[in-house]
Design brief:
- The protein is of the alpha+beta class.
- The protein has a single domain, classed as Lipoprotein localisation LolA/LolB/LppX (outer membrane lipoprotein receptor (LolB), chain A, Clam).
- It is 16% helix and 42% strand.
- The protein is built from 5 helices and 12 strands.
- It has a 12-stranded mixed β-sheet with strand order 7-8-9-10-11-1-2-3-4-5-6-12.
- A hairpin with a 2-residue loop joins strand 7 and strand 8.
């Protein structure tokens, strides 16, 4: 169960463990060039987001009928400076917090805290947790096979991607749906050894301009964490 919880926590980081091979590559000659206008529009739209809160649903299906489907639900909070908080409500209560420098995974059932220094900024496994264009950065280094406008009110787009030619293929296909004026990802699907789907709902956004003008955003304490006094603290969070 401990390994399962760690796997689901890693997977929720927008399924980037499976899609990491689509990160920065030696060759940037991806079809992002053909879809440069769409990717840049997405980057500009997301750059306006100051912070956000949402509910999430995570589904992981095994590659064989014998493997059971794993499901998780909870809440996610993202803010500038690589700060985030993920609260799992099921299958078991757990907490993932980053203050921008360190991150902690608190497994409540076994009262253990796993701590790790954040990797350098720009790590492909962190793109989807970085506000201000992280998704656009990921798309620039993927093989975009098509971009479709699939909704009008609100506007919705579908990005269909595959690994770059010549790259190690840790996944076969990625599909990302974004919506609204901020082009916020609402669903991410990764076809790999396992099928992964992450969906956001009940999204609340504070715009960057409003926060800079003194408007209220997410409380800073959401991105702070102090291990319980009786908890076991170990490193690293993930290998």
């Amino acid at each position: 169960m401990k390994r399962l919880l760690l796997t689901m926590s890693a997977t929720l980081c927008w399924a980037t463990a499976a899609a990491a091979a689509a990160g920065p590559a030696a060759s940037a000659s991806s079809s992002a060039t053909a879809y440069a206008a769409e990717v840049e529009a997405l980057a500009r739209a997301q750059a306006a987001i100051g912070d956000l809160a949402a509910e999430f649903t995570l589904t992981v299906k095994g590659g064989s009928p014998q493997e059971r489907t794993l499901k998780a639900k909870g809440k996610i909070f993202l803010a500038a400076g690589r700060r985030y908080r993920v609260e799992y409500a099921s299958p078991e209560a757990q907490l993932l917090v980053s203050d921008g420098k360190q991150r902690w995974l608190y497994l409540k059932k076994i009262n253990q805290v796993q701590k790790q220094t954040l990797p350098p900024a720009g790590n492909p496994q962190e793109f989807f947790l970085e506000l201000g264009g992280g998704l656009a950065q990921w798309l620039k280094h993927a093989q975009i096979t098509r971009v479709l406008k699939v909704g009008v009110t609100p506007e919705r787009w579908e990005y269909d991607c595959s690994p770059l030619s010549g790259e190690t293929k840790t996944y076969q296909r990625a599909r990302i749906w974004v919506r609204g004026e901020n082009r916020l990802p609402e669903t991410v699907e990764i076809d790999a050894e396992k099928f992964v789907r992450v969906t956001l709902s009940r999204v609340t956004i504070h715009r960057r301009d409003d926060l800079q003008a003194g408007g209220a955003g997410l409380p800073a304490k959401l991105f702070e964490f102090t291990p319980p006094a009786d908890a076991e603290v170990v490193e690293p969070l993930w290998p």
